[in-house]
Amino acid sequence: MEEHYRSTSTIRYLLGLATFGMLGWLLLSTAGPASAVDSRMLAGTFVDEGPLLDGPGYVIYVPTLVRRWPPLPYAGAFDVPDSPVWDSPITLSWEARVPLDHYPIDGYLLEESRTPDFAGAVTYDVPVTSVPFDVPPKPFGTMGTYYYRVRARNLWGLGEASNPASVLLLSTRDDFSHPQTGWAPRRTSYWDLGVMAAEYSSGELITRVEDRFDFTIFSPMRSAPPTPYSIKLRTKVIHEANLTSYGIVFGGNEGTFCGVNRWNASDPDGCFSHYYRLNVIWGGYLKYGVARIDGHRDAALGATGAAFDWGYDTLEGYEGGAYGWNEWEIRVYDNGFAVYVNGRLMRTLGDTTYIHDPLYGIFSSTNEYNGARFRHDYYYVEPLVGASATLPAELLRLSAPDGSF
Q1: Does the pLDDT at position 359 exceed 70?
Q2: Domains and CATH numbers, the chain
Q3: Is the peptide bond before 132 cis (omega within 30 degrees of 0)?
Q4: Do the beta carbons of residue 227 and residue 367 sit within 8 Å?
Q5: Average pLDDT in the 355-365 region?
Q6: Residues 6+ apart with CB under 8 A from 219
Q7: Which of 333, 330, 329 is nearest to 391 (CA)?
Q8: How far apart are CA 378 and CA 234, in angstroms?
Q9: What is the pTM of this model?
């Protein structure tokens, strides 16, 4: 080796470039073309077979660390929500590194798409100081999967794209296109949940109560927005059995699954131990009524206890049909609520006992015949805005003592 240092020839340097972070070999030679680099050098192989270059001279192999060039940022790593996001901005966080600290990241390009191939992607220019980043909110009621990837940027340009990440966006304006909204039996008067079911099918929710003289409340266990808000349910009968029913539940109290069956129905623990109930009963025609349920009686028939009940009105032919689709709506205010069918105001009630309790759902029951089966097209829970956000006082002045008119 000493001979090499005593050489007075001009030393030339050849560098076998490799991916940053891998070991390459630096070739020092006294002669020969600069392009004559043995392939084994690029692979990090130590060569000891003598001179590789034409002409006299010496060959020395010295290990060296070769840097990435140009020093563009590496692909980022996402931190996305594990659970579906409900009616809120999607918050994304990520980290990215650079090969050389003196070329730091100065921003990011975030891509958003409805498809994993990022066709027609929307892009957002995100400053470094804005991470975590709230993606601009979607219109209320938007549902579906969104795909994201990000590229860091520095003085040299955009770096590699991250691996895609996906987020499922759900809404209380539910069109039943996503089973993740979680409709299921929550309170029932029968011990066997096998005869109580909520099934998602081709963009509809099918509810079933198969036992006689029983009821079930189905719910996604989500909270309604603050008053004023609206609940809309569009439903059609499947099994035309006498005195089967469905309807809207709102003002329900929170809790886990109740475990309430016909033998301990008065148990106040758990969800929906009290609520308001719009009940629509089929019998070749439709009749409907609203009651405030303050508890459940222990009874062989799994009965509910009503604090007030306006009785039942018949839905006239010009108001809606017994065999087709009907849209029922409850508008909830601080001073009471109003009942609509197919866009027509039917009643107002001034009761406010459970107005601010948040849970909502679908009520269904059977009587002398089993098989309460209904198709539900949508269940929309959304804030009231504009003129509809106020319940006219003159309507309440016309109300009966129980709040109805």
Answers
A1: yes
A2: 2-65 (no CATH), 77-171 (2.60.40.10), 174-397 (2.60.120.200)
A3: yes
A4: no
A5: 95
A6: 183, 184, 186, 249, 252, 271, 272, 359, 360, 361, 362
A7: 333
A8: 6
A9: 0.77
